[in-house]
Every structure is written in structure tokens, then in C-alpha cells.
């Protein structure tokens, strides 16, 4: 498909500059740029050819990334501090245990890989010591890619309109409004980068890009459209992949155009941090979409934010919200990779003094701080005392003795689930913590899986690759709890503990975990590894349950004969 003179320039007999996605003449006239393609036999919008070229460039870049491990350049943003001071990546060194060596992910103590390794080893040994049946054969349709039961995503009518469009936009203004409304529903409650006044203003625009009055509003609109379109393409409509990549390119172009100059005052510094927050969100949604490593971008944003707090005395509500989002980003990434965070350890003391309009962020900030503290304590002391770890839980999130596990909130489930190494680590055991704490951790695993399943149905999960790790850990913790419950040792788990969950809810977390990981694997290719590991564990868990059932049946039959 060769680029030719557009229909409008040919009709007026003027020179066409053959630009994409629209020539200058059509752009000034606010008209759609069309040209006649001889091979197809009909007119083709030049914006469609531009979209194809962008897709080809993305595929070529992906091929180059597979051939060369060098990362693509990150959009140039002014940096006030050294990146090494805030980078979450530890200095390169030889791993202590070569079994856990990996350059792409953390596989060491505290990870789901180590947890499943210990549980599978235990189950295999018990299976080999039993003469009832041989080891099962693991057959997964996800391993050969021949899955016939693919997940069906709800239809969302956000197709690119081939009719007359505004040349400054890639999609119809109504589609832009739908994307901004989806951002307000899916992203804003968890990461409020925009103030309520800014969100109401942008939602009131009939054509957001044309009616934006300054660079700050354009940055917000480009960031919202890029993030929302990526979420829609990942979770709702895969036909939006090209449009999502184009909106992402628009965001990169806008960032590079604004921050191409070296001068930067305090106001532009805040915009710099905001732009980096949008890049972090893109990387949380689709790893690698920000053209850099997640921990480097988060570290750079945190360093710029800390420098901004030192340079200015004003710490308004916007700084509080941006600081909260940065703390949430960095603590999430630090806990996922089990790395220390300078920003989380030395966050500005003024962070957390929210106004009444943003007071709802205070409990979430306490949750992120508690989870990061627990994670770092396990990193520094692999065998801590349960009392010291329970002391790290804020008083407002502690579970009373009379509460049922099903009454846990998502915040309580996240905090108590972080305590699972107290009885799942190799150096610990079921007797390392009290039965009440063990019951609370298991209940947290069940509640976390149930809450995540609800969020997944509502399409409100931002980061699949961090959530998949947590879901796999929660499923393994619940499986370990079921294994302990079959040992019939009252000193480990009293009968009332396992009975508090109800007979119907014992298997439900396992089924929900399988469904979640299968859903993640459909939308994120590396998620298949999580699903395969979970599938192997569940099959061994069923086999172990079958061994115990047969052994119990044999004992009962022998007892009947003796009587």
C-alpha cells in the first residue's frame, strides 16, 4: 500500500506533503485525509495507514528486543537527583543460592516460587511413600497453547470510526469521553492522580483534546487516554490494541515535547512527577510499555518528588495525592521484588496529612506502610517471632478473636497474608505461631482470593503481574492450611478453627484461584507459568487428599471386621 496524493489535494490541484496521519492541507481544513489505493480499489484513510505503520514498528521493536537484551530508551525527563539513590534494583552480585537465580523476577525466600517448591516437595514425598497410586501426569492445555476454551470478554463498542474525525484525535470524541469515564471508574479510586475538580472538568469536556487549555490539562488527558485504552485493550476489547498503542505514542510525544528544554521550575517539577506516574501506571498494566524498567521509573519519580518537597514549602492536596500514589507504587514494586526502598523508608513526614476531601486515602496509606514493614522484617530476619510481626499491624486492622474469617476486609486480608512466612518458610513450621494467628492467616488468604475475584469481575485490577504473584501465594497458603487440617493434630489446628469456614467454603478458594490465574494467563502471556505451577500443586493436593481418604477407608473396613 503505497502512499499517494490525498483526494482533497488532488481535487484542488495543490501539492500534498504526504504526511501521516494527515497532510498539512487536510489538517488545516479539519478534514479527513483520504487517498485512493489501486491495489484495494477503494479510498483508504491515511490515519489507517499510520496505525498500520505504528503496529509494524511495534512488532519490529519486539523482535529486536528478543534478539538484543538492551532496553529501549525511556522518554527524556528532567531528573533532579541521581537514579542510583532511589533505584530498587540491588547492585549486581552473584546470587547466594543458584537455584533461585533469575534476571527477570524474584524467586527467593518469601516468593510464591519458594512457597510452592516447599509444598510440592512435601506432597511428592508423601505421594512416593504411599503405595496406593503412582504420581499423576500433569497435562495442561496451557503448556502447548492448544486451549479450546478461551475466555470471552464483554463487548465494548470503542471501534475506530472510519468516518470524518477530528484530525487532532485518533478516535471519536464520544470514544474519548468513554475512555475518560472508564479511567474515573477503574483507576482513579485506587490511584487518585487527579483532583476531584480536575476530573469533573475533564469529564465535562465534549471534545477533551480540543478544549484543553494548557500543557497540564493535555498531559492529564493524554495520560488518562493512554492508560484507559491499554486497560480496555487488555481486559475488554482486544481490537483496541492499535488504538491503545497510538494513544501511548501520543503520550510519549507530548512528554518529550514539553520536557525537551532543560529549564524546569517548581511547577514543572510537579508535572514531571505526574508524567512519570503515568509511565509507572502504564508499566503496571502492560510490563515494558513504558520503555524502561519499572523500578527505575518509580525510583526516578520518587527522587524527583523528594527533591520537589525540599524545594518548596507548599504541600497542598495535590502533593499529598501524588505522594500517596508514589508510595503505593514503590511499596507494591518493592514488596513484589523483595527489595528495599529509600522512599518508603524516608518518606516526607508531611505525607499523610490529608485534607477532609482526601481523608479516605489515610487507611490505604497505613496498609501500604504495614505491608512494606512486614516484608522488610522478613527480609532482614527470616525467622522472627510472631509477636514482633503482629506488633507491626496497625490497631485498626487487627482481627478480634470473635470475628469470623469471612468478615475480613481486603485491607486486613492483605496485611495478614503478608505474615504467611511465619508457618510456610523452610525455617518455620505449623508450631511456630499460635492456632489463632494461623487461622487468621488462612482466613486472610481465603478473603484475599474472594475480593480479588470480585475486582476481576468488575475489571478493576490494574496490575495483573503483581496480583498474580499475590493470588498464587494466597492459594498456596490456603492449600497448606488444608494439608495441616488433615493431620488431625489439635495442638496445631483446633476442630473449631477449620469448622469456622464452613464445609462449602473449603474448596471455593482453590476453584477461585484457578479461575483467576487462568484469566490472568489469557490476558498476560507470562501468567501461564503461574497457572501451570498452580495446576501442578492442585493436582498433587487432590492426590494427597485421595490417599488420605483411601487410608481412612481401609482403617474403617479393618475396624468393622474386628468388631
Automatic annotation (TrEMBL):
Compartments in which it is found: Nucleus
SMART domains to which the protein is assigned, alphabetical: GAL4
Pfam families for the chain: Zn_clus
CDD domains: fungal_TF_MHR, GAL4, ZIP_Ppr1
PROSITE patterns: ZN2_CY6_FUNGAL_1, ZN2_CY6_FUNGAL_2
GO biological process, one term: positive regulation of transcription by RNA polymerase II
Residue ranges, annotated region (Disordered): 87-106
Gene3D superfamilies: Zn(2)-C6 fungal-type DNA-binding domain
Keyword Transcription annotated: yes
Biased composition regions of type Polar residues, renumbered to the chain: 89-105
Keyword Nucleus applies: yes
Entry keyword set: DNA-binding, Metal-binding, Nucleus, Transcription, Transcription regulation, Zinc
Domain Zn(2)-C6 fungal-type: 5-35
GO MF entry, a single one: DNA-binding transcription factor activity, RNA polymerase II-specific
Gene Ontology cellular component annotations, sorted alphabetically: nucleus
Name by which UniProt lists this protein: Fungal specific transcription factor
Organism: Diplodia corticola
Taxonomic lineage: Eukaryota, Fungi, Dikarya, Ascomycota, Pezizomycotina
